[in-house]
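Much of what follows relies on a compact textual record of a protein's fold. A record is reproduced here so that you can trace the correspondence yourselves:
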Amino acid sequence: MSNMQEIIAKRAAKELEKNQIVNLGIGIPTLVANYIEGDDVFFHTENGMLGVVDVEEENIDPNLVNAGKFPVGEGLGASYFDSAASFGMIRGGHVDVAILGVLQIDEHARIANYAIPGKTILGVGGAMDLLVGAKKVIVTTTHTAKDGKSKILKDCTFPITTTRSADIIITNLAVFKYIDGVLHLTELMPGATLEQVEAHTEAAFINSLERGQ
């Protein structure tokens, strides 16, 4: 992972609170756990585990993986359950925060993160369920795609995952909050300028930097 992705993940970690149950998506979200001190946050994976922690290479159990098929460890007091129970937790509103990566996100904070027309990618996984069931949704993403085009669009050109809006968007340039149906720019990331954000954001947003919302 790049330093830019680490910076995004570190900022996302600041949004988490003690005793929350948190589900981390694939990609940048998986890095968030590196910036949580202690064991006050409980990480959930939709394939059936609560209490996920990092694991050293010499201690890897090939049968113990997260939903992205990456090796994980078990924290003190970790619990296991089948996938149906795990999704029951998500759909029942028992996951406090979902941190998700995206392909695109629109000015109504609706996410596209599971399909690119004409291409084969990993698939939707638990994203639809997490978007509907999690109490709070945080998006972590680079501000632009590899071709330099904005990933924060007026309207997504890829299929949206659900109509549920994300609550917070964290990129390498900025932090946006979705408040009363509008994106608010609330923070610039280190080294970023307002001019950069304006130039690389297609979606409409309100500059709330001075108000500190």
Summary: The chain has one domain: 3-207.
